[in-house]
Each structure stands twice: as structure tokens, then as C-alpha cells.
Amino acid sequence: IFTVCLSAIFTLSVAAQTVTGSLVGHVEDAAGATVPGARVTVTEINRGTSREITTNEEGNYSIGSLDPGVYRIEITQANFKKLIQENVEVAINTTVRVDGKLEAGGVSETVQIEAEQVQLKTDRADVSTQITSEQLEELPLSPDRNYQSVLDITPGVSEAATVGSSFGNPNGSLTNRINGQNERYNNFQLDGTINNQTNVISQTAIVPSPESIQVVDVSTNAYDAEQGRASGGVINVQIKSGTNRLRGSAFAFNTNSALKARNTLSTLDKPNTNLNQFGFTLGGPIRRDKTFFFADYQGGRDRRGQSVVLSVPTEAFRNGNFSASSSRIYDPLTGTATGAGRTQFAGNIIPQNRISPAARAILAALPLPNLPGTTENYETSGTFLQNRDAFNVKINHNFTDTTTGFVRYSFFNANTSDVPSFGILGGPSTSGGLTAAEGPGRNHSVSANLTHVFSNNLITEFRFGYVRVNISAISPTEENLSTRLGIPGINQGDFFTSGGIPRIAISGFDFLGIAATVPFDIRENSFNIVNNWTKTLGNHTIRFGGDIRRLRLDKFQASGSNPRGDYTFTSGVTTLSGQTGTSTNAFASFLLGLPQSVARTTVNQLGGYQLQQYFFFAQDRWQVSPKLTVNYGLRYEIYPYAIGLEAGDQSRYLPETNQSLISGYGSTGERLGVRTEYNNFAPRLGVAYRLDEKTVIRTGYGLSYVPIGINTLATQNFPGQVNVQFQGSNSLQPARDPGGNLITLSTGIPVAPTADVSSGVLTPPGNVILSATNPDAKRGYVQSYNFTVERDIFGFVTSVGYVGSRGTRLPGTININAVGALPNRAVTTADRPLARQFGRTADTFYTDFMLSNSYHSLQARVDRRFKRLGRLTAAYTFSKSLDYTDAFTVRNPLSIDAERGPSDFDRRHNLVVSHVLRLPFGRGGKIFDSNGLRLSGLIGGFTLSGVFTARSGTPVDITGIQIASRRPSGITARPNVIGPARILGGLGPGQPFFDTSVFQDPAQGELGNVGRNSLRGPSYFNYNATLARTFGLTERFKLQLQLAAFNVTNTPHFRNPSGDFTNQNTFGQSRSTFGERQIRLGARLTF
Length: 1087
What we know:
Elements: H1 2-8, E1 21-29, E2 39-44, E3 50-54, E4 60-66, E5 69-76, E6 82-90, E7 95-97, E8 100-102, E9 110-114, E10 127-132, H2 133-138, E11 161-162, E12 174-175, E13 187-190, E14 193-194, E15 213-221, E16 234-239, E17 247-256, E18 274-287, E19 291-310, H3 315-318, H4 357-365, E20 378-398, E21 403-417, E22 438-455, E23 458-473, H5 481-485, E24 503-506, E25 520-537, E26 540-557, E27 566-569, H6 583-592, E28 597-603, E29 607-623, E30 628-638, E31 643-644, E32 651-654, E33 659-662, E34 681-692, E35 695-705, H7 710-713, E36 721-727, E37 761-762, E38 770-773, E39 781-793, E40 796-815, H8 833-838, E41 844-866, E42 870-883, E43 901-902, E44 909-918, H9 933-939, E45 942-951, E46 955-956, E47 976-977, E48 999-1000, E49 1015-1016, E50 1020-1032, E51 1038-1046, E52 1053-1054, E53 1073-1074, E54 1078-1086
Parallel strand pairs: 1-7, 1-8, 6-9, 13-16, 24-27, 38-41
Antiparallel strand pairs: 1-4, 2-3, 2-5, 5-6, 10-15, 11-12, 13-14, 15-16, 17-18, 17-54, 18-19, 19-20, 20-21, 21-22, 22-23, 23-25, 25-26, 26-29, 27-28, 28-36, 29-30, 29-31, 30-34, 32-33, 33-37, 34-35, 35-39, 39-40, 40-41, 41-42, 42-43, 42-44, 44-45, 45-50, 46-49, 47-48, 50-51, 51-54, 52-53
């Protein structure tokens, strides 16, 4: 089979996510004897397509590659009555069992039955959930109505989170962690073709409106061999199609500040908010039973007022007066190089002539505190602006009785503007993000599918997908602002540096300046082709196929440090060796204009990258008996290394020789010597056994390789981009250039010289941050497994099972130039291992497939579909997820095993209950159905929908050392814990959530003993609800009015307490909340 697969396929895609479903069944007579040769005819009742097959010698039948829809099934055989089963729903990626029991009689006689409401999963072993269009339209989705916000009604799926800025992610794509895996490992499909972005692979290119979606299929564990390029979950969204009946809708929703509660901790008036969302859908026949169309549009006009609380220095601090502070301020220009023997400033006051002119000019533009205290003492607000427009157009066509297809085009456009908290000085955005900027985003998606039935036993599917993403952002800052404020050499008039100031990070205070990622202009083009074949041989249904994906990324964005520069001010510069430093000391360092470290990226060449990915699979669904089904298969995946579009677009550092390979120059190849691995075989196995008509036992196993985006391994392209780093000789000394001269705010940051790359090999400067990659790395993989029992209990489909996974050789990055704390003195740059060998003092990162993770869970789900009342679901997960890092970089490269701990997103208990309940009052209900038109009109037509969530807390990571001379270099330091860290439960400023007294600095030369993610934050309880009423305007037209409330009880949701041990002002305190109650009004007209 596998050989046939390789030779027959010329395609690709990320995982060939199926866009069709299948029907299977067993036909027998009243005595239980099998009926071979019975004719089974399935007809899609809304589009008129029909397929026909006969049962085999064992009375079994299987019809694959069925377009999703509602089917009528007719079973006929001589000497038996015709059996008709109506309204059988077939969705994407499902196998629906419809067995038939024929009664003796004539074919002219008919037995007609309705499809059962309860449908057990009898012939597959994967763990999956389908979210229907009714749920998406009725449940209270997030305020921006994103379908991804309710994926967590699936067991094993975490709550949705936002990834990236509003400019890098203008369509508001959300991410979920699935069964303990990183969100980068999920595979999103739209109508069966690519929907993941290329630069940030956890984001989707198109987020369709709820009204346009037919179904969302979420596969989380042990999926078929057909599905891959994912080791987390596979999420396939199907856009609606037109039918023989003209249908449509028009809708409008509004949220404004009058309908939003005040933030629990805010002291300002509620900022003005007004979010309008509106649109329509329309679908129907172009030519009856032949050609159909569906189109939709959704617009959004977001004027979102947001407030944010930040930390700014007091007026006394700005004048250099620290006399009221317990922190002693020492003159860094006195004493020895180790920080010993320093002189404290008289009266703890910095003389005016020592204050940096540039620092003084910056502070003149920085607002003063408007709240009490020395931290979190400034509250401001601003308005986030975004105009969004999106639409889908889909055409389905039945070419013949045996050939069907569709083509879809999707479009998204947005213009976004966010406001910096500190005006011309930048800083965090008022919406809470790290990037304040403005810019457009425009995405396109095309999907096409063609299915041809050669015979009852041979079918092929061909799919093509294309995605284009174009996003950009600039920061509307003053031209030559750094020059005006007295920081020379920053504003050089190019795309990256013409305006704004460097990013200034002062420990314990909020940063100033613009994020390193802005400005940017990113363009992605992704193609994928899929070809699958289905062959039925007796009781075996064999599928095989291939996918090919071609990805291209043109990235006009600085990588690494800020192109305007990064100044980092820490406490050590103004402390005495062996003494505790605070944020007050860090600010004093800023006043003196003396950073502890400085970095800057010089952009000499912008990178473009492309890669191909190849996937092949073969699988067999073996109907061993009417009760036992075995699915087994194999995938084969090839991930070649990305190549640059031009010479010099990539480089790879060789730590063993201290040289860098430059792609495309000299004898250096375009893949920099990184080898392609050809041994990525991924077996899959699933078994489903029907114990009886109401009970199914399933177990499955699957191996999946982790997908890695271009952005992970291919964006370090020294010397195209030179990321220089200047540091003090140790953590108590200010930064100096290679000549020993102080680098201050008033001197600016030196620019790295250009390098001769003609030979393709060069020796980089020792103060340039570099990245290395293992050229012989073997790609990581995740093994997933489950054992599940599902039973129909009085109409409630209940499943309980063990679901687990284990990741091996997962990607990770470590700083190979890190050094631990020394026993007798502060660490110096000369102590770094590569400094001793090559004079290399800068951070040097090494990426390899070196990590692992594990996930174990008990997952339970209840699903009840009521014929007239709606639907109720409940998902509970009891789980434990362990890993080494939430991102790729390991915080302690000297002891990787010490970083193994609970995942950042790990919640031991997750309960999500959703309901769409049509209240049984008035006409059509069970209560007061015929009690007069007036009463029926008053109380009829109501629907109550909601999502209740209860979750235990996520981990809190304790980091930082207060005494600068004890800090390691290139390692995230941790304190010691000397006793149980009791949970005190305090919430709000000044209220410790846990006992902070049990933490202290480690002794000189030691690393702290606190484990990663060793504490837990507050639990989360929330209920979102929608009350809707539907009015029948005419026989065809209906109007629904909605009132949705998010956080109905307005329960304050406190964020995790601070784990920053160095900032004792906030350590252990949960000082901010989110998700205050918000009400949305809406109306939807349908026909």
C-alpha cells in the first residue's frame, strides 16, 4: 500500500484533513442473518446528489468521500420491504454508522424511520468533537465573536489566548493548548486546506464569522494517518454551502461602554467603547441540483477604550532625591571593578550635575504619577481603533453524478491603530499590549476541491489551497526624537530608525520606547496540494494520498534587539557588592545614564525564505465484524530546511570553530549544511468495539512529528542583521564598548561595522549575539494514546477515558555562553565559556531537538441533544502537563533537568458546560402551547444559551535574585525557598497571595532551589450567557433579538500574582483583573 501511495501521489498539504465524511453499516434480516447484495442508495436531500453501492458477502457496506450534508438512505433487496432512513447527518471527518434490519415483503412496501438523535462513534478511535453551526450562532462567543473562543468545550483543550500584537494578528486569531502540547503544534484547516500562517504558525490566516461556518471539527488525539503536520490538535473549519433552497441572514451586534462594567481596580472613568459588528449571509441554487452558491460578509468597527496601570518614577526620584528610600544609592564610578568599596551618594541624593541630560529630557516628557506609591502609580487610558471587513464566497458544482467539487475565496482586511501609554515616549499600549503602532493587514485564502467516483470501490479527491498574508505596522513617533532628547546616533533616517527613542528598560518600571518588532512589513504566500484515494476491498476501506506544501516568507523586520537600541538599567550598577538592590537602584542608574547592558540590531539585509514540506500516508479501516473496527496506517513526512531567497539571507554559527557560515557565498550551500531527515515514519492504530447497541470501547495510538515554522530556525542572518551587545564586565558595572569606554544615554550606541562575506565563512565579532543549529538534528515527535468508553445513558452520550501524550526530542534553545554564579565574586563577561575560548562575550544560542514533555489526563464528556429543547454538553478534564519551557528557550541551560516542571498553561481541573436550551413556553413548546395567541406571543420563542467555566489556577514561576553580585550570567536566576510557601489567598494591591517570607537570595556561588512553576495562581469561575427571543415575522422570515452577557456575575478575575522576587513592591501580589462584565446587544434576521 505504501509503495502505491508514493507512486500515485503528486501532492501536498499539511495534513490531508478530510473535507468529507463516510457512511458504513451492516444489513441483516429480521432473524439476524446477513443480507449480501442489498442495494444501498444515499441521497443528499438539499442538493440532490446521489450515490449507490451494494452490500458485500458479509452484509457490510461503506460509502466514503461523501460531501457533508443531510442524507436519505434507501436499502432495497428482493423479497424484502424497502427500508428508508431519513435525516442522517454526515459531517466532515466523521464515520456514521447506519445499520439496516430488513423485513420480509415486497419492494413496493416501505418501512420509513427517522435518524436517531443519539449517534455513538462506533467505527473510529480518535478523540474528537464537532461544534455545530447552531452552537456557534447561539452560544455567547467572545465579544468579537471568534469561534475559537469556544473550542474549549472540547475535553483536553485549554482556554483560548491571544498571540501576537493587534498588528501582527489583526484578525484576532486565538490559540489553544491541546492535550499538553504547544499551540504551535496545532494544525488549522479551512475547507480542508491550509489556514496556518507561516511566520507565526500558531495563528490562522482567516477567522470566519460564526454565521458562515457549517461545522468545526476538533481532533485532539490518535487521529487517522490522513491527518498530520500536527502533534497537538487538528482543527478543520467547514464553510457553509448553498442548497436548493434560498437561505440567508442579516445581523448586527453592539457593545459599548454603557454596557460594560468598570474594572474592579480602576480609578478612572470608564473609557469610551463602541464595538459594532454587522453582516449578512446568502446561499442558494444557481442551477437547481447542479450549481450552488454561498456568500457572507462581516464588518467590524471597533472603538475600544482601555485603561492601564503602570509604574513611573515619583517627582523626588526624578530629581535624584532618594533620601526617603531604604535603598542605598552608590556611585558606580567609585570603588573597585567588583563593586566593592563604593561611596554612597551624600544624603542618598544624586547631585544635579551627575544627572544625565538625556535622562532629564526624557523625564520631562514622562507623565508624573496620578496614584499613590512608588510602583503601579500611574493610570491612563486610550482608544484602540480597528476597522475590519471580511467575506467568503463558495461555489459548489455537481459536474456529473460521479464528479463534484467546490471552490472558495476568503478575504480579510483591517486597519488598526493603538495608542502608547507615554505619548511620544512610547511604552506599552493602553490596550495592554507591548506594541503601540498603526498599520493595515490583508489576508486572502483560496480552497478548491474535486471528488470523482470511478466506481463504487474507487474514489479520488483533489484539493488545492492558497493563503496570502500581508501585515505591516509603523509607530507614529516623532522624527529624530532621540536626537532632540540628546541620544545621538539613533535616528539614522532609514525605515527602522527614523523616529522614536531606544527601548529603555528600567527594572521595576514600565519600559519606554518602541518594541523591537516595529516597524515591520511581512508577506506570506503558502500553497498546498492534496490528493487522496479511497479503495474498498471487501471489509477493507483503504485510503492513501499525499500532500505537498510550499511556503514563502518575505520578512521586513528586525530580528533580535531593537534597531533603535535597547538600554537595560538594573539595580547592580548603583549597589555595593554583596548588598541587596531594588528598582530604586535601577532608576538611579537611569538617572546617571549608565545602563548595565546595551544592545542594537543593525539591519543590512532583509531576509526572505522558502521551504517545501512533503507528506504521504496510507491507512486501512478494517471492518473485522459488525462490532469490531480496526484502523491502522502509516504517515511519512519530509521537512527540508528553509532556504533563503537571496545570498546572505541566512547564516549559521559554528560554536566549535567560532565561525559563521553565510548562505549562498563562496562554497557555502543554501541550506548551510543542515541535513534533511528522511526517517520520519509515523504509525497510527485505532480499535473500536461495540460492546452492545449503547456502549462502545475505543483505544488508539498515534505518532506525530512536530511542525516547525520558518521563524524558528531561519531568521538569524548575521551579518545581514548584526545584533551587537555591550555589557558591563560584571552585573555591578555599567556597559562599555570594546575599547573600555562607557556607553551612556548621551553617547548613543555604536553601530557594528559591515563585514566581508564573499568567502561564505567569517569570524564574527565577540559582542554579536548569534544563533547556532544542530545540522544533524532529528525531528521531534509526540506519541498520543487513549482508552475511552462511550455509552448512551438515557439519551446522554457519555464518554470517559484516559488520554495521554509524550513528546520526545522537542525543539529547544539554550544559551551556550551562559555561566553560573561564582563562589567568591561576581560573574564577569570574561568567565563566559566562549570568552575563555574565543573572546566571545555575547549571548550565543543553540537550537536542537533536545526537550520532552508529558501529559496525562482523565477526560469525560456528556452530550445530550434534545429533539425540541436544544443541546447540553459538559467537558471535564483532570490533567497534569510537564515540560521544560513554554517557549523554545530554556531558562537554565546549565541544568536543563532543573527546569522540568508544570507547563505554564497547566490547570489540574477544567470544567466547561455549554447549553443551547429553547425554553418550552408558548407556541411549539410543551407549556402554554395552545393557551391563546396573546399568552403564547408573550412567553414563546425564548432561547437561553451559555457557557459555564470552572478552572483551577495556572502555575506561578518565582524568579530573580536581589543581590547583583550573586547573579549568574545568561541564566534566569531563582531564589531559595526555605519553607512551605503557604497560599494566603490575598487578591489586590498590597494583599499577598502566597507567603513571600519563605524566599531569600541563595548564597554566593549557588543557584536558587525554587523549582520552575512551583506555585499556583487563583482559580477561575465564569458564566457567559445569551438570552434570545425569536419572532416569526412571516412563514419564512424570522427575527431574533439577543442579549449576551460576558461574566454575568461580574466576578473579578484576578491575574496570577507576581513571581518577580527582585521587585519586592509587587512580589506575591495579584494586582490586576480582567474580563469585567460586558453586555452585547444583537439582532439577526433569517429566511
